Amino acid sequence: xxxxxxxxxxxxxxxxxxxxxxxxxxxxxxxxxxxxxxxxxxxxxxxxxxxxxxxxxxxxxxxxxxxxxxxxxxxxxxxxxxxxxxxxxxxxxxxxxxxxxxxxxxxxxxxxxxxxxxxxxxxxxxxxxxxxxxxxxxxxxxxxxxxxxxxxxxxxxxxxxxxxxxxxxxxxxxxxxxxxxxxxxxxxxxxxxxxxxxxxxxxxxxxxxxxxxxxxxxxxxxxxxxxxxxxxxxxx
Length: 236
Known about the structure:
By secondary structure, the chain is an all-alpha fold. It has helices spanning 3-16, 18-40, 47-51, 55-71, 78-85, 89-123, 130-158, 161-179, 191-195, 209-233. α2 packs parallel to α6 and α4 packs parallel to α7 (130-158). The longest helix is centred in the middle third of the chain and has 35 residues, at 89-123. The two termini are 19 Å apart.
């Protein structure tokens, strides 16, 4: 079977599962809502991050989306049925990752632009300029997409949605709210913190907006490669 029909089949799975559609909607709602609340009580030190503060919560919905899309294959023998139709495990996992990435990116872009418009309306004259704001909107979309794929790769390794979320959600909360303020440390190179550098007006660490996203992309690539290896080598 060629790649296109495999991708189409995976897309049908995603758009027909209410939990996945709910997770996609939660990305937009959580990011925009928490960003608006943060912007309303923000100072002028980092207006861009005030606009996109809610991505720290939106990314939790993104990892729930990526995790559920993969972990659902390991319940009730679903993966065995899938592989009976698509024996090439590498092709199937590539189609699964693509089917996760495309809607995550689309929702991420919508989230980024909606959040930017809401944040500019709330901050008024203190809002970041359009050039900086658009960079933040694109960075927001890319970061959310990468986090969804990172979770998908880890879910393929752990083969459990509960286990994956039990690892990632505490990790994100600890890094974002406890270790995250230690700029210039090893925390800057963790996937959560690195990707969010693009959402700051200025940053004192070693990474810039795009190099930070590149670090997150490397983490994501490693997780997907580990997931692909697990799918290919382990019994369904």
